[in-house]
Specification:
With 365 residues, the protein is mainly alpha-helical. The chain is built from 14 helices and 9 strands.
């Protein structure tokens, strides 16, 4: 039902909406650069993503980047009440208040969305087709067909910004690609993207960088229920899956040496040669029936954010500053040699929210 709204062709009509939300994000980075403050990239990037989803899916300006929104607050609160995945934390699992709070925030979101759908009045003359309108059209068509036949009545952490700081050659190549495709006048980028959204499809190296970031830092995994006809084999032994939940561990798959050469090396070039990476190997959004329906929207948002920020700013992580502030100078935790390792529940988030500093770049036209 939602597939038509998330199709690439339809999303290109919504680039203007995404650009407008990204302008707010870019302006926030400008202010943070002027204030010279340490901030959590995860927080401001998450709010941007909420606002983009609001515009693309519901045709609603959540405004969560500049104020507060009831739906966004309820969603984030509900996530905070999810059970700790650490098996050692038994006390957390016995929190009897959790199901009550989950029900409460779910109810608040349900009421918000029901009111949105009830009052929805799309512009019939607009060329833009938002996800919710196309979904409702498909729903009505299906119900109408049912009536005839049956007689019835009736979801970035934009870690790519930090990757650029750690890999200057890749960052420089991305900036050069943006200069070549979008021009060097940074003041015209937003209007150019609004008028010529097809330019986002002419950024192969930018796309390769995003794919490499998601290989190293996959957002999450996917799961499906086992069945009688699904049997796993290993070392000659068979393992029935009936009644079991099968989970794809993307962090493990993305670092398999039999799939990726130099697994710990940041190498976007591996995605420029179609034959170098198997089609089924790269799966941060899942594959097949379990594929994330919002993949096209997520990829488009990341490309827009990169084109509108990477040439304007330099960013650097501030983990060392946070350590000094907390007096934490020993036993620094890393994963794969990185302080921004992933933690969290359900989806992977950067450690400590990815504390960062941002500075303005002096760009010569």
């Amino acid at each position: 039902m939602f597939n038509p709204g998330f199709a690439h062709r339809n999303l290109t009509l919504l680039v203007e909406d995404i650009v407008e939300e990204t302008i707010i994000f870019r302006d926030k980075l400008w202010r943070l650069a002027e204030l010279k403050e340490v901030f959590e990239m995860e927080d401001i990037a998450t709010l941007l993503t909420f606002d983009v989803i609001g515009r693309a899916v519901l045709d609603e300006k959540f405004g969560s980047q500049t104020s507060s929104n009831d739906l966004v607050i309820a969603f984030r609160k509900q996530l905070s009440w999810l059970a700790d995945t650490n098996p050692v934390n038994v006390v957390d699992k016995l929190n009897f208040l959790r199901p009550v709070m989950n029900w409460w925030y779910h109810r608040k979101m349900e009421i918000y969305l029901r009111n949105q759908l009830t009052s929805r009045q799309p512009d019939p003359d607009s060329k833009k087709k938002y996800v919710i309108d196309l979904a409702l059209d498909k729903y009505r068509q299906d119900k109408k067909q049912d009536n005839v036949e049956n007689g019835f009545t009736m979801e970035s952490n934009f870690t790519d910004m930090a990757i650029g700081n750690k890999n200057p050659p890749a960052l420089q190549r991305v900036r050069e690609e943006h200069d070549a495709v979008l021009g060097k006048d940074l003041n015209k980028v937003s209007e150019l993207l609004k008028r010529q959204s097809h330019l986002l499809d002419q950024l192969p190296y930018t796309t390769a960088v995003i794919k490499e970031v998601l290989r190293l830092y996959p957002i999450g995994g996917s799961g499906k229920m086992g069945a009688d006809n699904i049997v796993l084999t290993r070392d000659g032994k068979s393992y029935p899956t009936t009644g079991m939940l099968l989970v794809t561990l993307n962090p493990a798959i993305s670092r398999r040496p039999d799939i990726y050469h130099n697994t710990e090396v940041f190498q976007p070039e591996r995605f420029l040669a179609p034959s170098s990476v198997g089609k089924e190997s790269w799966r941060p959004f899942g594959r097949g029936a379990m594929r994330c329906i919002g993949q096209e929207l997520a990829m488009m948002e990341m490309k827009i954010v990169m084109t509108m920020t990477l040439r304007n700013f330099d960013v650097a992580d501030a983990y060392a500053e946070i350590d000094r502030m907390k007096g934490n100078t020993s036993a620094i935790k890393t994963a794969f040699g990185d302080r921004a390792y992933q933690i969290g529940r359900v989806i992977g988030k950067a450690n400590l929210g990815m504390p960062m500093r941002v500075t303005k770049r002096e760009v010569l036209s």
